């Protein structure tokens, strides 16, 4: 497939889980992928692995999305190196569970810092590059928790609801510049974030999921690839659930 040949895509949180699966999915369609992670060595290693696997260009750089100056510098550097940034996949995020009565300020702050402020920092930086050529696609990461709530994840759900709202608002603002903004809302996906869940919790999820299984990172990656591609040329301002029917 060469659907994305010639496109430059930046993926934050691209060294593991859904972000890494997305790097593979986009690279398989011919995109030049730049994946980021907090640890520059791990980012470079993951990029080399994907590049060797797919035979396409993949770069890996260290980036903490909580450092706004670093985010700006990273986007400027990529735009200078490749001459463009066609898409942003803002997959960087964090999840910490806590009952409402046990939430503390630091917990709430961490949920908002990476999931909201970090996402908005990358959205801003991508927008500044894309507005110059009046085209681009941005995919943010919400969550089924942000759309429908989740026990023990109030702060996380609030953060992801904010991301969904940001996607809708940015889509309205950036549409006249030819920039599409959408979000995905994954359900329970087999990643590091869910690895610590008990069999009891996962069993309850499975019983409520019509498709009868947990999601895989590739399930979400394929939806992101669609949103990035021209197949979704008339899709913007949407929050697409990828949850196996969990919230029906």
Please name the CATH topology. Answer: Rossmann fold
β-strand percent reads 15-25%
* Count of DSSP-assigned helices: 8
What number of structural domains do the residues give?
1
Structural class determined from secondary elements:
alpha/beta
Largest sheet, order of strands side by side? 3-2-1-4-5-6-7
Summed over residues and divided by their number, the pLDDT gives a mean of 92
Secondary-structure element order, as H and E?
A: EHEHEHEHEHHEHHE
Distance between the termini: 33 Å
β-strand number: 7
Characterize the largest beta sheet: strand count, sense, and whether it forms a barrel: 7 strands, parallel
Task: Please outline what is shown here.
This protein has 248 residues and is α/β, with parallel strands linked by helices. Helix content is 48%, strand content 15%. The radius of gyration is 17 Å and the shape is globular.
Descriptive notes:
The protein has 248 residues and is α/β, with parallel strands linked by helices. The chain has one domain: Rossmann fold. 48% of the residues lie in helices and 15% in strands. The chain has eight helices and seven strands, in the order E-H-E-H-E-H-E-H-E-H-H-E-H-H-E. It has a seven-stranded parallel sheet, with helices on both faces. Helix 1 links the parallel strand 1 and strand 2. Helix 1 packs parallel to helix 2, helix 1 crosses helix 8 and helix 3 runs parallel beside helix 4. The chain is globular, with a radius of gyration of 17 Å. The model has no long low-confidence stretch (mean pLDDT 92).
């Amino acid at each position: 497939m060469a659907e994305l040949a010639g496109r430059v895509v930046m993926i934050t949180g691209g060294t593991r889980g859904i972000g890494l699966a997305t790097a593979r999915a986009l690279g398989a369609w011919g995109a030049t992928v730049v994946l980021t992670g907090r640890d520059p060595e791990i980012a470079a290693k993951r990029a080399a692995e994907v590049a060797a696997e797919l035979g396409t260009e993949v770069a890996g750089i260290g980036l903490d999305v909580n450092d706004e100056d670093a985010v700006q510098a990273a986007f400027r550097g990529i735009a200078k190196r490749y001459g463009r940034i066609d898409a942003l996949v803002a997959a960087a995020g964090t999840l910490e569970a806590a009952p409402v009565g046990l939430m503390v300020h630091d917990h709430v702050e961490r949920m908002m810092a990476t999931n909201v402020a970090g996402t908005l920092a990358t959205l801003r930086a991508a927008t500044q590059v894309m507005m110059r050529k009046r085209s681009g696609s941005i995919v943010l990461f919400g969550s089924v928790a942000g759309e429908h709530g989740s026990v023990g994840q109030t702060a996380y759900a609030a953060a992801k609801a904010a991301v969904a709202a940001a996607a809708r608002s940015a889509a309205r603002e950036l549409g006249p510049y030819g920039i599409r903004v959408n979000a995905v809302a994954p359900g329970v996906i087999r990643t590091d974030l869910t690895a610590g869940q008990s069999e009891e919790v996962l069993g309850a999820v499975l019983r409520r999921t019509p498709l009868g299984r947990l999601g895989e990172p590739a399930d979400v990656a394929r939806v992101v690839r669609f949103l990035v591609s021209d197949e979704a040329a008339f899709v913007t301002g949407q929050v697409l659930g990828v949850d196996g029917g969990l919230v029906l």
